[in-house]
Structures are given as structure tokens and as C-alpha cells.
Amino acid sequence: MRGDTPPRMDDLNDHSGSDDDDVPGELDDDIEIIEYYEGSGDSDSDEADHDVEGEATYPEPSRNDAATTFREHTGSVFACAVSPDGKHVVSGGEDDRGYVWNLQTGETLFQSTGHKDSVTCVGFNYDSTLVATADMSGLIRVWSVAAKELVWEFETSDLNWLEWHQAANVLLVGTADGSAWLWKVPSGDCKTLQSFGPSSSAGKMLPDGKRAVTAYEDGSVRLWDLKGGAVTHAVTGANAHSAAVTCLDCSADLVVSGSMDGGVKLINAGSGKVLASLRCDNDASGDGTNSVETVGLDPTVKTLAVGMLGGDLGLWDVGTLVQKQGCPHPAGVVKLLWKGPHCLVTACLDSVVRAWDTRSGQAVNSWEGHRAEILDVALAPDGRSVVTASEDGTCAVYRFSQD
Length: 403
Prior knowledge:
Layout: E1 68-70, E2 77-82, E3 88-93, E4 98-102, E5 108-112, E6 119-124, E7 130-135, E8 139-144, E9 149-155, E10 159-164, E11 170-175, E12 180-184, E13 190-193, E14 200-205, E15 211-216, E16 221-225, E17 230-235, E18 245-250, E19 254-259, E20 263-268, E21 274-279, E22 292-297, E23 303-308, E24 313-317, E25 323-326, E26 333-338, E27 343-348, E28 353-357, E29 362-367, E30 374-379, E31 385-390, E32 395-399
Antiparallel strand pairs: 1-32, 2-3, 3-4, 4-5, 6-7, 7-8, 8-9, 10-11, 11-12, 12-13, 14-15, 15-16, 16-17, 18-19, 19-20, 20-21, 22-23, 23-24, 24-25, 26-27, 27-28, 28-29, 30-31, 31-32
């Protein structure tokens, strides 16, 4: 919890080590080329039967606010993302499939088949021309959206997270063996960001496209130079979290990490210095009963939102490190997304999506429709639609009312 005299963020504006040059179009020169090879996995499991014996049943919601419901998955839906052009959604699920479908109508464009395990990571590239789906076994498949054809695939160890570069066809993923991989798609040219042992639990590209941050199950955080593939700064030992890092967010100058220990760290992205450590729960046991599940900086980098497994949502002033508002939820906060500087969207384990006015701390809208827990949420680029993925096997599209 907060102290009576919180520290200040005077050195947040220390830009030492930051690079404002244009985003590189290529990751070449000293790039390490990894030989592509076909995995020997059996194709028999690719088309696994999905019998209905023992299938979970869920109560009907009190109301259904969904403008569109996508029902093609035959098991829990773990991940969803909206294309940057706002036309399509990709979703991945327990049925070992990814689906690309129309945001407005819910009509299926094509399936990402051939996976060997649950599809848990999905995403579109920067210009919406490519879409990636990745499963828990480590198989990554990238498809051309227009041609509906597979253009590249690779198999690595068990996969934890995936992210596209903001301005190039470059894919960054993190794995359970602690490695991170950086690929040019579809050429397959690759750099490896070395493992330090613990599983890589989260990762993000910084806005300049030249740096990345990765986090680990031992509580450590590392900043990387992507061109050189080297660690520039590491938060380890006494400066690290005392339990696994669960989530990350970043701006040009600030990295925010949240952990199962119930704490949040604010790290200067240029120097690697830990600027502040926030206690966001009342339980210092670190057993994950009230872990930090999601963090997010508002577009102006003035407010930090922190969502907890116990249902708390705290809004912190980045400059003073004082908690300005609390937005309680009846169940765990799965994910939060900023929709402008004063509107926050949250997905909750009670199957409800809420929009909050961060100035008052009041919920200004809520949407129901799922029959089980929401596992992921995404915002359309125009801010008019919210897409959710649920344990009930469906995705829902909710619309903001037009003012």
C-alpha cells in the first residue's frame, strides 16, 4: 500500500540512453540466420475430434448486449486481437484453431489450422496484411490475410507470448525456456535473445521499435537492443520482483511491470533504473492470491492503471505515485485497455466488460453476454467496438454508443 509520503518521479524525464531515430525498416547486417526445419510432429493430432461428452454447460446471462457473437470455436477461447485497419478479428482457442473473421458481421474469413495444441497467442502485423497464431506447444503459423494462405511457420519450445513490430514484418515471441526469438517474416531471418534460465512470462516492443522489454518468472526484467540482440539494462536480484512478472506496459521512457507478488515497478527505459516500487495489495505473501494481472499507462503517460486478481483496479498518478481512484470489481480484473486519456475498459472474471471514467472512478457503461469468464479483450482502432474471448467458447463484439 501507499506510504504517507510517496516518492516523486523527478528522474522520469531522464532520457539518457533513449534513441529517437526513425524505426529501422530491416533487422539486417549482423542478423543471425537460423536454419528453418519442418517439425516432425504427427499430423494425425491436427484434426483432433471434439466430442461433446462432458462438455461444460454455463448459465444464460441476465442480458446479451453483444452486437455480434462468434460461435465457431468448440472450446474455450483464450486470445483475440483486432486488425489495425479495423476490419477483422483473430481468435485462438482450446480447439487447436485460430479463426479470422469479420468484425462487423462475425463471418469467418478463414481458419488457421494445423496447430498441435491450444492456440493461446494471436495478432495482426502493423498493416493488417499478415496474421499470426501460436499454440502452447510452440508452433507459430503466419498467414496472408488477403490470400488466406500460410506464408511462414516455425516451431520452438512452449510459447508464452507473441508481439508484432509496430512498423515492420518482424515477430517477437517469448518461450518457457527463457528465450525470446525475433523473426523477419516471411524470410525467417532470426535473432535469438538469450535465455537466463527462468521462463519468459511477458514481453513488449518499446514505441521506438528498436528496443524491447522482457520479463521472467523469477521476477526479473530486461531491456534489449534489438539490432544488436544484447541486454542493455537488467532489473535483477534485490531490485527485481519477489515473484513471477505477469504483465508489462511501456511508453518511450517508462516501463511498468506487475507481478504475482502484488507489486508494480516503474523503470526508466533509458537507464534501467527502478524509479518506484508500488505495493498494490494488502498481502505480501506473494502467493498469487491477489496478484497484479494487468497494467496500462494512459496515452498521456499521466495515469497508471493496475488491475488485480482480487478485483481491485487502482488509478495512480505517475508524477506523484499517489493512488487517485479505486474502481472495485466483483471478481478478478483480467485485462485493461485505455480508450483515450479518461476512459478505461476492463474485462472481468464475472464475464462483464466495463467502461470507466477515470476522473470520477465511476463505471459509465457495462456489457454482458458471456456465460463464463472472459479470458481476453481487445479494442478496435476507432474505439467504437470491444471484442472479448471467453471460456464459454464464444467471442463477443460490443459497441460503444455513438454520441
